């Protein structure tokens, strides 16, 4: 039972940390970030199992994390009010052609990063954008002024 409680605590801790870090950072992992996540995973495993090298301990931890992940998805699907907490809401970065500076600051996205994302979506200038929305996945969706008209 101790392993289950520690796994639940670590799962909730990681969920809070990943929500605090922000979706843009998580969607664009570089090699150093990926290595850091693997190292953190190893440290979490040792903290959860207290260096328990038994197959039973590993199975309990993996099963607990799997149940928590599936439960979170089910709760998000079943209870609409929990969805913003578990998955996050889309955030409007450009509305009716006006850049929402406050939203950019809160998400730690610079104007140049937003422009670069627009260029990757085949949009030459932010002046062509009617709406830009930071999706829950970390991707930015653009709606050009021509398409919206």
Describe this structure in words.
The chain is of the alpha+beta class and 149 residues long. The chain folds into two domains: 2-86, no CATH class; 91-148, 2-Layer Sandwich (CRO Repressor), CATH 3.30.240. Helix content is 62%, strand content 12%. It contains eight helices and four strands. The protein has a four-stranded antiparallel β-sheet. Strand 3 and strand 4 (140-144) form a beta hairpin. The longest helix has 24 residues, at 55-78.
List keywords for this structure.
149 residues, alpha+beta, CRO Repressor, 2 domains, four-stranded antiparallel β-sheet, 8 helices, 4 strands, 62% helix, elongated
- State the secondary-structure class: alpha+beta
> How many β-strands, per DSSP?
4
Number of domains: 2
Average pLDDT over all residues: 79
Strand content: 5-15%
Q: Could you give the order of strands across the largest sheet?
A: 2-1-3-4
N-to-C order of helices and strands: HHHHHEEHHEEH
Q: C-alpha Rg, in Å? A: 20 Å
* Individual helix count: 8
Weakly predicted, low-confidence segments:
none
Shape: elongated
Give the end-to-end Cα distance, rounded to a whole number of Å.
59 Å
Sheet of most strands = 4 strands, antiparallel
Q: What's the helical proportion of residues?
A: 55-70%
Brief sketch in words of this structure:
This protein has 8 helices and 4 strands; from the N terminus they run H-H-H-H-H-E-E-H-H-E-E-H. With 149 residues, it is an alpha+beta fold.
Task: Detail the topology: elements first, then pairings.
Layout: H1 2-21, H2 23-27, H3 31-49, H4 55-78, H5 83-86, E1 91-95, E2 98-99, H6 101-106, H7 111-120, E3 129-134, E4 140-144, H8 145-148
Antiparallel strand pairs: 1-2, 1-3, 3-4
Helix pairs in contact: 1-3, 1-4
């Amino acid at each position: 039972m101790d392993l289950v409680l520690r796994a639940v605590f670590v799962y909730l801790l990681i969920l809070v940390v990943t929500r605090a870090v922000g979706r843009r950072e998580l969607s664009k992992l570089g090699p150093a970030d990926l290595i850091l996540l693997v190292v953190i995973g190893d440290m979490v495993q040792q903290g959860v199992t207290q260096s328990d090298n038994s197959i039973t301990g590993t199975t309990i931890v993996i099963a607990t994390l799997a149940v928590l992940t599936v439960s979170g998805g089910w709760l998000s699907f079943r209870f609409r009010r929990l969805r913003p907490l578990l998955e996050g809401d889309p955030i409007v970065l450009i509305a009716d052609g006006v850049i929402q500076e406050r939203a950019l600051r809160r998400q730690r996205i610079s104007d140049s990063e937003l422009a670069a994302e627009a260029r990757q979506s085949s949009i030459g200038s932010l002046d062509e954008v009617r709406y830009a929305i930071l999706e829950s996945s970390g991707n930015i969706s653009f709606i050009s002024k021509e398409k919206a008209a």
